[in-house]
Amino acid sequence: MKKYFLIGLLAIAAGKISAQRFLSEVFPAVIKTSNVTYASNFSVLTGTPTLTALTMDVYEPGGAPDPLLHRPLIILMHPGSFLPTYINMSPTGSRTDSAIVEMSTRFAKRGYVVAAMSYRLGNNPFVSGGGINLDIRKGTFIQAIYRAMQDAKSCVRFFREDEAAANAYKIDSNKVILGGTGSGGFVALAYATLNNFAEIAIPKLISANTIGPPYNFTANQPYINIAQQGDFDGYGGSATVNFPNNSPGHNNSVQFVFNIGGALCDNSWLAAGDVPMVGFHVIGDPYTPYTNGMELVPSTGDTIMQVSGSYDVLHIADISGNNNCFVNAGFSDAYTQHANTLNNGNDGLFPFATIPSAQVAPWEWYDSLATVAGAQAAGVLNGGMIYHDAVLDNPGMSKVKALAYIDTIMGYLNPRIVYCLNLSVGISENEPSNQQVTVYPNPAESAIFIKTQNENDLISFISINDITGKSVRRIENIQRAFYKIDRKGLLPGIYFVKVGFEKSTVVRKIILN
Predict the structure, then answer these.
(1) pLDDT tens per residue, range 238-258
(2) What residues in the chain have per-residue pLDDT under 70?
(3) Would strands 461-466 and 349-352 be described as parallel, antiparallel, or unpaired?
(4) What is the value of pTM for the model shown?
(5) Could you count the other beta carbons within 10 Å of the beta carbon of residue 188?
(6) Closest listed residue to residue 245, CA positions, set 127, 161, 333
(7) Most buried among 11, 82, 467, 471, by the most CB within 10 A?
């Protein structure tokens, strides 16, 4: 059996997972609204700044009524080296990539609202060698991340502006999650960490040469010129380079970030107080390092700059205390157990140890005929070579393989989002009958006490489930109105105590310190 089947089937080893919102797919369908404009800004893809509409596809839970009026929002950003699909010498690079659509659909079926957003493109990784060409590769790369970060902030503000008015998408602005794959992961990590001018004035982000249009780099000055390109939030700048009027005045903070196969341009950006984050990374990724190393241009092998991969990012996030909301949660599911055999104690990091080890984005899949036809339509004549090279980087590429990896991403990521954002997973805590039950103390230390208000209401059973829905303790045939449960090794975290009676059940959420 191949490695990716083992990864995809880890859920079986964990036992049956109950259908709980945000952890399981509880909605049978999704409602997809395509091409929603969330902002406008100047694209530099052709070299001349052109005001362009920025769009997204919004996925919402469907197929059944949704009782929640305020739902957590996930904004998901695609890969693609900051160039259009095929132009980037890859069959992926847009919000309609198979993996982006699949993940957006899965998140929406779990009860999230998902915005698969496009962002401004424009990068020149194809000039080879050092000197001026190295400046061009580095400068256009960091500028592309910066523009996309501004766009993502505009997208967050769009939803907060909508929530303050009609709230057409029924989002909860206190629970916004930002994630990305590949270059989208670079953007997500920059969004979470880049907030100080000094962070873009570090030596590796300063141009060694003065280079004229369309780059306009100045020797001994940062590649990012805030006076021209606007500030970190997308305000200010030159009127012909940055459009600042994208839902101004609304907050663009996020509460959680995840990265799939991306990296952080410099680990000095990451500091205590940044939001919690989770990372997924192929250990042997040949272009974006798992630890700290050189980011390479996939099609040429030229260097871009030293970056910090997911291992370094999650290590710093953990020791900085940013992930304290889940590092002591006591997750014991199969995904966590597998990750912990590889991540050297860095909770929130899921390393993929692939066979062969050098692989790129095994969660993606693509079709040979569609790649050739799409490349031709884009004016690229070597679609066959693009497909061939992509398969070399993703050995055994198939939809089955990709879905197995996406199973793992969902299984590891969602419990941590739920735990950190304290999302209700859909177990009702309302009284379904006349039974009144007290579960105390809360938080608890060494024991949990369950007491019914009426001594004639006898408890039949008690079941304790962890945050993933897994049953960790069950006591049958109690037939008492009062019961004490010794903790007996239950790890710290959030649990759901289900108290069963002859004809009804009551559920209470409790925290174990």
Answers:
(1) 999 999 999 999 999 999 999
(2) 1-19, 426-435, 467-469
(3) unpaired
(4) 0.84
(5) 30
(6) 161
(7) 82
